[in-house]
Amino acid sequence: MTTFWTLFITILTLGTIFGCGALVIWCTKDYEGLKDGEDMGHEYDGIRELNNPLPKWWSYMFWMTIVFGLIYLLLMPGLGAYKGLLGWQSSAQDIKSIDESKAAASSSDDVFNQYFREVAQAEKNYGAVYRSLAYKPETDELLPIEQIATKKEALKVGQKLFKQNCAQCHGSDARGQGGFPNLTDKAWLYGGEPAKIKETIVDGRIGNMPAWLDQMGEDGVKEVAAYALSLSGRKVDPQLAAKGKTRFVVCGACHGTDGKGNPAFGAPDLTDRDWLYGGSRKAVEDTIRYGRQGVMPAWKDILDEDKIQLLSAYVWQLSQLENQ
User: So which cofactors does this thing need (predicted)?
Assistant: First the structure.
């Protein structure tokens, strides 16, 4: 935080606190020279104001809150860049990467770093649970994902991991949304086998559908869109679709000449009714016209191997349940 903002926050905060103290002092003084209980000559709606002092308990409590506030600001961070005498912080504010965070967490003995303290406590409380569900007993060998998926307790843990880390994009029910795949069906871009699902979680995915407007022109975009829609049985203008089939040869490099996609590239199957960015004519035309860029982040540096194994098992069994 810059010096300007540190000074601004400090002056504003302390000015408010000391201003409240000054107001209490002013209210406890008798500037009228009147005796206690004497009429002050003010009336509103039939109510007369008498010269009565503030209740002692009220003024004492007010002073207590002022003193508490000053002590708190002295011990804890709150005045701009000032870190407080205790050195407490919610997290390591200067960390800029996951690697730096891990290094700081492993080397830090600062019990006043709230984030590191909570992570360490969570690992202490639940680390053994993750390990018992993901590893074979008394070995360092991970259980197969298919076997983990048969354990109710493991699936409950996997569901919690999913909601903590994946639901922001794929939804709490894993059915996805525009641009984020539905994980409960079998329309897998890179393959839905347990090993492929784990690979996706570990290393992430980068999808790139190039824009074709400059190469095809507006007419070409509409023709290819018509043909792509016809592959899934949609009713389209047959003349447009015929022209689009000729142009589709450049699309076949990724989607295949039959339009059934290629998991090696993450190219979707165009013969089904599953459209990642929407299956309306306009949405398909926009995909061809402007392209699409999708990123699935890698979780290998964020989640431990046992958590990834449990998460993979949960995601895999979602599509198995949906299609039983």
Answer: heme c
pLDDT of residue 54: 83
- By the 8 A CB rule, do 289 and 215 touch? no
Closest C-alpha among 223, 278, 294, 288 to residue 255: 288
For residue 105, the model assigns a pLDDT of 60
169 is in an annotated binding site: yes
Q: Establish whether 27 is an annotated binding residue.
A: no
Which residues make beta-bridge pairs with 142?
Answer: 135
**What pLDDT is stored for residue 243 in this prediction?**
96
8 Å CB contact between 260 and 189: no
1 assigned binding-site residue: no
The DSSP secondary-structure symbol of 248 reads: G
| Cβ contact 166:176 at 8 Å | no
Sign of the C-alpha dihedral, residues 106, 109, 110, 116? positive
Q: Is 254 annotated as a binding residue?
A: yes
Alpha-carbon gap, residue 89 to 104, rounded angstroms:
14
170 labelled ligand-binding: yes
Q: What CA–CA distance (Å, rounded) separates 270 from 88?
A: 55
pLDDT of residue 120: 78
DSSP state of 307: H
- Residue 42 assigned ligand-binding role: no
Which pLDDT band holds residue 102 (cuts at 50, 70, 90)? low
What confidence score (pLDDT) does residue 92 get? Answer: 65
Domains, the chain, in order of start with CATH, read 3-75 (no CATH), 134-204+298-322 (1.10.760.10), 206-296 (1.10.760.10)
Helix (H) or strand (E) holding 286: helix 281-290
Instruction: Kindly report whether the global pTM for this prediction surpasses the value 0.85.
Output: no
Q: Counting runs of H as helices and runs of E as strands, what totals does the chain give?
A: 13, 4
Mean pLDDT of 141-164: 95
Rounded CA separation 39/31 (Å): 14
140 pLDDT band (50/70/90 cuts)? confident
In the prediction, which pLDDT does 93 show? Answer: 64
Q: Is there a binding annotation on residue 255?
A: yes
Cα 284 versus chain centre, distance: 28
